[in-house]
Amino acid sequence: MAGDTLRGRVFKYGDSVDTDVIIPARYCTGYHPEELAPHCLEDLDATFAERVHPGDIIVAGNNFGCGSSRENAPIAIKGAGISCVIAKSFARIFFRNSINIGLPILIAPEAVEGIEDGDEIEVDPSRGIISNLSRSGSWRAALLPPEVQEIIEVGGLVEYVRTRLSR
């Protein structure tokens, strides 16, 4: 995340988007992103998978990722090409699973209020800066600790451990 600026179109959702709509249980037979991605959010937004482009960003309300602890949910989101999820708050297990697979996540309630579906935004995760390029406006997200940012930057916990062990 250090120096990486993300830029994409927003898919905006409300409160309590649970893991069952992020990736329905009927598709949780594996952990391969390419198998999960076509079904990402299909029970909430039937056209999501066909409209999303690499780099796009999900913006959501409170308690994003609530429900079951399935790690398939952030894998499906990342596999669909989403570069970052910004929410007012995250369910604890989804938050940890996202870090573990290297999906950038930011808590920024004010940004969520100022961003609309379809807006183009730019995100600097390492500095916590979110800029709305469509409507103007800029906000700061809560910064993750440097160690957590490093885990996300290298692609997740497995890669982080590999990197640490090779030093």
Features:
globular; Aconitase, domain 4; alpha/beta; seven-stranded mixed beta sheet; 167 residues; 8 helices
Summarize the structure in words.
The structure is a single chain. This protein has 167 residues and is of the alpha/beta class. It has a single domain (6-166), classed as Aconitase, domain 4. The chain is 32% helix and 18% strand. It contains 8 helices and 7 strands; from the N terminus they run βαααβαβαβαβββαα. The protein has helices spanning 19-22, 33-36, 48-51, 72-79, 92-101, 109-114, 146-153, 157-166; strands at residues 6-12, 57-60, 84-87, 105-107, 120-124, 129-132, 138-140. The protein has a 7-stranded mixed beta sheet with strand order 4-3-2-1-5-6-7. β6 and β7 (138-140) form a beta hairpin. α5 (92-101) packs across α7. The longest helix has 10 residues, at 92-101. The protein is globular and about 40 Å long. The two termini are 20 Å apart. The mean pLDDT is 95.
Short description:
With 167 residues, the protein is of the alpha/beta class. The chain has eight helices and seven strands; from the N terminus they run E-H-H-H-E-H-E-H-E-H-E-E-E-H-H. The two termini are 20 Å apart.
Count the DSSP helices: 8
Number of domains: 1
The overall pLDDT average reads 95
% residues in beta strands:
15-25%
Overall radius of gyration: 15 Å
What is the general shape?
globular
**Mind telling me the CATH superfamily name?**
Aconitase, domain 4
Helix content: 25-40%
Q: Given the helix and strand composition, which structural class is it?
A: alpha/beta
